[in-house]
Amino acid sequence: MLNSSGYIFRETINSMKRNPWLSLASVVTVMVSLVILGYSIFFLANAANMAKSFESELEIGAFVQIEYTPEEVQDLKSQIEQMPGVESVTLVTKEQALEEFGKTIGGSQGNIVSDVGGTNPFPDKLTVKVTDPQNVKALASSLESNPGLYKVRYGQDFVDQLLKFTQWLRWIGFGVVAAFGVAAVVLISINVKMNVFSRRREIQIMKLVGASNSFIRWPFLIEGLALGLAGGTLAAVIVGLGYNWITVYVQSTLTFLPVVQNELLFRQVSIGLLLGGMVMGALGSLFSLQKFLRA
Amino acid sequence: MIQLTNVSKIYLNGARALVDVNLKIGKGSFVFLVGPSGAGKSTLIKLLYREETPTRGQVQINSKNLVRMKDREVPYLRRNIGVIFQDFKLLPNKTVFENVAFALEVIGVAKSEVRNRTLATLELVGLKAKETAYPHELSGGEQQRVCVARAIINNPALLVADEPTGNLDPDTAWDIMELLYDINKRGTTIVMATHARAIVNKMQKRVIAIENGRVARDEEKGGYGYDA
Ligand SMILES: Nc1ncnc2c1ncn2[C@@H]1O[C@H](COP(=O)(O)OP(=O)(O)OP(=O)(O)O)[C@@H](O)[C@H]1O
Ligand SMILES: [Mg+2]
C-alpha cells in the first residue's frame, strides 16, 4: 500500500479536476447539511441552558383580580407574605405597569389610556420571591386556588413551553439535516460514479493485470472522503465564526439572555462536523463502488 | 497446467457458447484455438482468466480451481496470467513506458523495480526506442508489442491471446508471432484464438478446433483445417 500512496493521491486530484462543478455541488451540500446541524446543536444547547436558568429563578408572578381595590390588594399582599416558603412579596401596581409600558413605547400616560380604550388594561401584579426553588411549584398551585388572584405565572411555565418548542425544533432540525445529508450522499455518489465511468478503461486494465479490488477502490473512496471532509471543514468554520459573531451580538444587545460559551462543546461540535462530512463522503463512495468491483 | 472438465457455458441470454468441453493443456505448450465465428473460442479464453465462470464443469489452472475461487482471489490469479487482445487495450493518455509500467504500479511493486523491469521488458519486445511515445503515435504492430510487454512483464506462467494479429497486416502479424514464439521458448504456456490460417499452418503447433461450442478436433502439430 505504501508504494501506491503516490498513485492514489494523484488519481484523487485528477478526478476532482475532471468534474469541478459536481465536486463543488457535493461539497456545498455537505456543508449546508452540517451547518444546519451545527447551529441546531448550538441552539438546543442554548435552549437547554436557558431552561435551566429560568428553572432556577425563584420568582412567581401573581396577577390580582382587576376589580380589587388598593386596600384589598394590600391585604392580599400581607396574606401571601405570611405563607410558608415565601421570602418577600413586591407589588407592582397597575399604574406602575402602565407607566413602565408608556416608557417603553414613549409618549404620555393619558394618551396611552385613551389609546388602549380608556381604561388601564394592566392588572396589579405581586412578585413572590421564594426561599427554596423546590417549593416554587407547590406554592404556585396554592396561589392559583386563591380567589384574589386570577393568574399565576412562574418559571416552569416558560420552561415547559421552551422544552416543548425545542422538542419540535429537534425533530425539524433532524429532518432537515437528514434531507440534506441524503442529498449530499447522493451527490457524492454521482460524483464518484462519474469518475468511475470516465476511468472505466483504466479500471478494466487494472483488473486484467491483477490489481486488487481495494487498490482500485482506494482513489474513489478517498475522493468521496475528501469531498465530505471539505464540506465538513467549511461547515465547522462557518458554524464556529458565525456562532462567535452571534454570541458577541447577543451579549451586547440582549444582555439578559444567557449564552453558552463552552470551549469543550465548541471543539466537540467542530470535530463532529468534520467526522460527519467524512461519513457522508465514505457512504457516497461506498454506494457507488458496491456493484462495479465484483472481480 | 490447464484442465477443463465437462465445461459448459450458457450465457444469460441463452446462448450456448461451450458444450461439455474436456481439455488438458500442458505446461510450456503452444496451443491454437480455431473454429468458425461464434464457435466459442473467446468464451473459452475468458474462462481461463476468469472473466467468465462456466455454467457447469470445472476449470483448473495449476491445480487451482477457478470455479470455486473467491472474487478476492482473482487478482492474484491474474498476476500469473498475461492477456492480449485484438484491440490492444492501451491507455491513450499514457506513454509506452507508462502503459507497461502501469501493470506493475497497480499491484504495488516498488518504484525503482518498476523502472528496471519496464525497461527490460520494452527491450525484449523491441520498443526501447519508443519509450516516450503515445499509443496514437505507434503503428498497429508496435501497439500490439506494448500490449504484449504489459502482458508478460510479470513473467506469467500462462499467456492467453484472443486474435492478437486480427488487426495487423500479414508481415506485422508474423513479427508478433515471432515474439510470442520467443516468449513460449522461455517457458510461458500460450493459448491463442485465431483465424489466421497461414500462421497456424506454418507454426505446426497443437490445434484445437471448436465448433458450436464443442471440441471438434484436437491435433498435435496440426493445421488450420478449414478450406478457404
Ligand atoms: N457476453 C455474452 N453474452 C451473451 N452471449 C455471448 C456473450 N459472449 C459471447 N456470446 C455468444 O456465445 C457464443 C460464442 O461466442 P464467442 O465470442 O466465444 O465466439 P468466438 O469463437 O470467439 O467467435 P469469433 O471468432 O467471432 O470471435 C456466440 O453465440 C455469442 O453470441
Ligand atoms: Mg472471439
TrEMBL record, chain A:
Residues 177-293 form the ABC3 transporter permease C-terminal domain. Pfam families: FtsX, FtsX_ECD. It is found in: Cell membrane. The chain crosses the membrane at residues 21-45, 168-192, 225-246, 266-289. Part of the ABC transporter FtsEX involved in asymmetric cellular division facilitating the initiation of sporulation. Belongs to the ABC-4 integral membrane protein family. FtsX subfamily. This is Cell division protein FtsX. It comes from Desulfosporosinus nitroreducens.
